[in-house]
């Protein structure tokens, strides 16, 4: 093979780079601000629920889930894991939580509340409060509750509903969820006002909510454009660009402009029939968190003509919702957050897929993005992101004749993902995808 | 011991579904539930028979592998496995609750793969805040609506109040039963308690109450109770539904309290009478059951944290139990992959240390084959505290 600089196979979006840079820059600025005395929270990813309120109250937010991923990718997580084990936490707990617990233990006990010196990206300085979440999994609130062993920092547990598909459609169920959310957020504002010693700026909150909704609407439309053949935007660009919307990073007006730029670039590619890879042979859906530490793996697959065209709904913006007639920003926040969790429910019920929103969106995505296969990435220490995957695989093959390839890995323990082994499965899976392409054709599917 | 109540409980324990199947043959509808957070009073009030599903610790899990990962709550895995193998086919319906993430996720798969005539999932908030209780009440109201549609009957408040009274009576009787472990030696063993509680969760409430009354009378006057052992243990766990687990400890110690969902946890408090009975139920189920899944704080919405106060608010109820039952050691027993309990272990140990109770942490998979290797660990702990 000719040596020298190898051309990247995935044609990355130019507009992705400033979005990605903004996320990194925002994090470093946050750490600087916290070190300079600005109030800070450690928060769980909360799906547009607590974030807009904290942003309007000028709280700097760091996300220990992300920090766990960064620590793992940079190879420093092991010491935190070992600290957590030594403190008595079982080894099979969520890898992010163990990294966060071990980090906190070291910070508070070994370094007297100062950031451990080896911490990447300036570490996570001690927060003023913790924002846990009842959504998605138990670790996301039990973890922060467990941190009470190390630091006397109050926890606000963000309460949200988690209805089933059929149960959601019982008369009055949605209203009850909205009522709880709005009342809960009102109390959260009171908590913040108490701990920060200042009042909420409601005008600022309204502006924040407006921007949040608009950013996510544009971001949703960017991803809709990816239905085009060839798909103009690879999953790698999605993962690079998503944090700015998902975590409401930095200045929201800047973010909105950057997502608009991305929309234009993707639209131009669609108009010009430019794909994200040179020759799109297979269109794939990717389910759950990617192997952050081995993203180069996707370049190898791109060389084989695998284009990853859509990902887990859990990181995608909610289906746009017209909330213009609702004046209370807390209600708008609540409804938008609920839309993330239940936005697909009515469709799921009509198509009789009771697997709630965690399974149904994959059916929708595979159909509308015309996927030939799904790559499922169960994570040994993130059960919440893995539990549904066998069900998803069964549902895709039974309903759509779309096969799945399961590649096991982990969010923190890098040894559990073997890219070579995964690549060895590519060729046989191509044969499977070809087979099911024929089956779909025989059965009248349009892709 | 000529204790017909106790031997009847043991028979039911060994052949749990028999009575449910008889009742079904007689025209009753049997509704399964895998967790103590399901308000069984609402089933009883509509003349439905609640039947707690535990899965089967003796049965290798095979069918579930097509639906759930292996590194997943082994209790939910065995429950689903039994359903997929048709072992629960006598059930007319299933009610699950969002008491933990595995149950929520399993519910969706369960609903899809097991075609019960009736299936209901009850969403549960994690906090005990007023808005959370109000929301939980709305979920119970939705549960009422679907039950009414399923049975074709109205759930009348008076009937629900009567059902609450009957279940409260059962709670009182179970509390009385656990009083009988206070003497040294206890009058009833931990193994027998598991048998009785599991039998109760297989019967209509009235039959259960009758059984309990008989058991209590017999145990009070028995002369062949457990022998006095060197240690008096508390077992703290999630679900404990098999005597094999209890026997690991009872060869060398008296287990005098099992703070588990197969033990007293579902029976410690009682539902308060309220004008709208759903208020009493919402309050009891969300606030009173001491499962690790509930997020508790020393003060709601506190802006200052004090760890000593925090763990007291979460585990303080154990202090009185330790004192009254003269407990001298605690076993923190974790079913592998049970996150709510797993996160709790170091803090619970901190609390027990603070009240001077030695404890040990033991983890196992919920299957019989996993128990044997634990015996040595159990015995080593008992020796250290004896």
Feature tags:
heterodimer, A: 4-stranded parallel β-sheet, 8 strands, 51% helix, globular, B: 386 residues, alpha/beta, Rossmann fold, 2 domains, 4-stranded parallel β-sheet, 48% helix
Structure description:
The complex is a heterodimer of chains A (447) and B (386). By secondary structure, chain A is α/β, with parallel strands linked by helices. Chain A has one domain. Chain A is 51% helix and 8% strand. Chain A has 18 helices and 8 strands. The longest helix of chain A has 24 residues, at 173-196. Chain A is globular and about 65 Å long. The two termini of chain A are 36 Å apart. The mean pLDDT of chain A is 92. By secondary structure, chain B is α/β, with parallel strands linked by helices. Chain B folds into 2 domains: 16-159, Rossmann fold (3-Layer(aba) Sandwich), CATH 3.40.50; 172-385, 3-Layer(aba) Sandwich (Rossmann fold), CATH 3.40.50. In chain B, 48% of the residues lie in helices and 12% in strands. Chain B has helices spanning 4-14, 17-25, 40-45, 74-84, 101-113, 130-151, 157-179, 190-200, 205-220, 243-250, 277-288, 307-315, 317-324, 339-354, 374-385; strands at 29-33, 48-52, 93-97, 118-122, 231-236, 253-259, 329-335, 359-364. In chain B, helix 10 links the parallel strand 5 and strand 6. Chains A and B meet through helix 6, strand 4, helix 8, helix 15 and helix 16 of A and helix 5, strand 4, helix 6, helix 12 and helix 14 of B.
Low-confidence stretches of chain B: none
> What's the number of extended β-strand segments of chain B?
8
What is the tally of helical segments of chain B? 15
Number of domains of chain B: 2
What is the first-to-last residue Cα distance of chain B? 29 Å
Q: What's the rounded overall pLDDT mean of chain A? A: 92
Helical content class of chain A: 40-55%
Strand content of chain B: 5-15%
Helix-strand category of chain B:
alpha/beta
Query: Percent helix among the residues of chain B?
Result: 40-55%
What topology, given as strand order, has the largest sheet of chain B? Answer: 2-1-3-4
Order of helices and strands of chain A: HEHEHHHEHEHHHHHEHEHHHEHEHH
Largest interface: A-B, 67 and 67 residues
Please state roughly what percent of the residues of chain A sit in beta strands, choosing from under 5%, 5-15%, 15-25%, 25-35%, 35-45% or over 45%: 5-15%
Terminal CA distance of chain A: 36 Å
Mean pLDDT of chain B: 94
User: C-alpha Rg of chain B, in Å?
Assistant: 20 Å
Using only C-alpha atoms, the radius of gyration of chain A works out to: 22 Å
The ordered H/E elements of chain B are HHEHEHEHEHHHHEHEHHHEHEH
CATH architecture of the largest domain in chain B: 3-Layer(aba) Sandwich
């Amino acid at each position: 093979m000719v040596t020298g600089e190898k051309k990247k196979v995935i044609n990355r979006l130019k507009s992705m780079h400033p979005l990605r840079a903004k996320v990194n820059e925002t994090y470093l600025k946050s750490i600087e601000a916290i070190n300079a005395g600005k109030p800070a929270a450690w928060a769980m990813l909360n799906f547009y629920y607590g974030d807009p309120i904290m942003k309007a109250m000028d709280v700097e937010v760091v996300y220990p889930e992300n920090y766990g991923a960064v620590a793992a990718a940079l190879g420093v997580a092991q010491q935190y894991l070992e600290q957590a084990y030594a403190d008595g936490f079982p080894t099979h707990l969520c890898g992010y939580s163990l990294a966060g617990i071990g980090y906190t233990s070291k910070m508070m006990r070994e370094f007297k509340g100062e950031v451990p010196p080896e911490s990447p990206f300036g570490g996570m300085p001690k927060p003023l409060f913790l924002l846990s979440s009842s959504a998605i999994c138990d670790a996301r609130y039990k973890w922060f509750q467990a941190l009470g062993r190390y630091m006397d920092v109050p926890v606000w547990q963000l309460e949200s509903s988690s209805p089933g598909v059929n149960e959601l459609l019982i008369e009055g169920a949605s209203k009850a969820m909205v009522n709880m959310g709005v009342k809960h957020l009102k109390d959260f504002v009171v908590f913040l006002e108490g701990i920060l010693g200042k009042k909420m700026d409601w005008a600022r909150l309204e502006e924040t909510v407006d921007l949040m909704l608009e950013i996510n609407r544009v971001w949703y439309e960017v991803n809709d454009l990816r239905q085009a053949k060839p798909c103009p935007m690879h999953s790698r660009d999605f993962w690079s660009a998503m944090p700015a919307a998902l975590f409401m990073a930095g200045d929201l007006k800047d973010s909105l402009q950057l997502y608009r730029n991305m929309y234009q670039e993707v639209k131009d590619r669609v108009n010009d029939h430019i794909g994200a890879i040179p020759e799109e042979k297979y269109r794939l859906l990717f389910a759950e968190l990617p192997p952050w530490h081995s993203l180069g793996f996707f370049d190898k697959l791109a060389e084989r003509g695998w284009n990853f065209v859509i990902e887990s709904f859990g990181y995608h913006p909610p289906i746009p919702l017209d909330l213009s007639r609702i004046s209370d920003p807390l209600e708008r926040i609540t409804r938008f957050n609920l839309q993330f969790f239940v936005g697909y429910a009515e469709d799921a019920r009509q198509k009789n897929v009771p697997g709630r929103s965690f399974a149904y969106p994959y059916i929708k995505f595979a159909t509308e993005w015309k996927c030939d296969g799904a790559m499922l990435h169960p994570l040994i220490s993130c059960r919440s992101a893995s539990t549904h995957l066998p069900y998803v695989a069964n549902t895709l093959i039974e309903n759509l004749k779309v096969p799945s390839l399961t590649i096991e890995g982990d969010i923190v323990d890098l040894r559990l993902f073997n890219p070579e082994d995964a690549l060895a499965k590519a060729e046989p899976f191509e044969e499977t995808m070809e087979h099911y392409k024929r089956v779909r054709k025989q059965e009248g599917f349009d892709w | 011991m000529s204790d017909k109540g106790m031997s009847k409980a043991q028979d039911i324990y060994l052949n749990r579904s028999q009575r449910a199947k008889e009742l079904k043959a007689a025209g009753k509808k049997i509704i399964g539930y895998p967790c103590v957070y399901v308000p069984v009073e609402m089933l009883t009030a509509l003349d439905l028979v609640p039947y707690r599903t535990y899965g089967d610790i003796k049965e290798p899990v095979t069918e579930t592998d097509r639906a759930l990962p292996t590194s997943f709550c082994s209790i939910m895995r065995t429950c689903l496995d039994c359903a997929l193998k048709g072992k629960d086919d006598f059930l007319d319906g299933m009610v699950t609750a969002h008491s933990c993430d595995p149950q929520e996720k399993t519910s969706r798969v369960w609903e899809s793969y097991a075609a019960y005539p009736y299936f209901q999932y009850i969403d549960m908030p994690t906090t005990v805040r007023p808005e959370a209780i109000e929301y939980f009440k709305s979920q119970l109201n939705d549960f009422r609506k679907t039950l009414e549609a399923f049975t074709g009957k109205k759930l009348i408040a008076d009937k629900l109040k009567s059902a609450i009274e009957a279940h409260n009576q059962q709670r009182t009787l179970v509390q009385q039963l656990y009083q009988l472990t206070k003497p040294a030696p206890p009058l009833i063993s931990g193994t027998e308690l598991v048998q009785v509680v599991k039998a109760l969760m297989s019967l209509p409430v009235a039959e259960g109450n009758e059984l309990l009354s008989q058991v209590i009378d017999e145990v009070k006057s028995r002369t062949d109770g457990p022998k006095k052992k060197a240690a008096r243990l508390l077992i703290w766990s999630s679900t404990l539904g098999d005597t094999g687990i209890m026997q690991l400890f009872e060869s060398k110690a008296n287990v005098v309290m099992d703070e588990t969902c197969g033990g007293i946890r579902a029976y410690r408090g009682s539902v308060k009478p309220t004008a709208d009975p759903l208020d009493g139920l919402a309050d009891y189920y969300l606030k009173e059951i001491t499962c690790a899944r509930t997020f508790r704080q020393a003060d709601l919405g506190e802006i200052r944290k004090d760890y000593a106060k925090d763990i007291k608010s979460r585990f303080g109820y154990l202090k009185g139990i330790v004192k009254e039952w003269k407990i001298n050691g605690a076993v923190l027993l974790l079913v592998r992959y049970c996150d709510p309990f797993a996160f709790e272990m170091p803090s619970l140990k901190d609390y027990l240390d603070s009240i001077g109770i030695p404890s040990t942490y033991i983890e196992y998979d919920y299957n019989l084959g996993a128990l044997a290797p634990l015996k040595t660990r159990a015995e080593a702990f008992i020796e250290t505290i004896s």
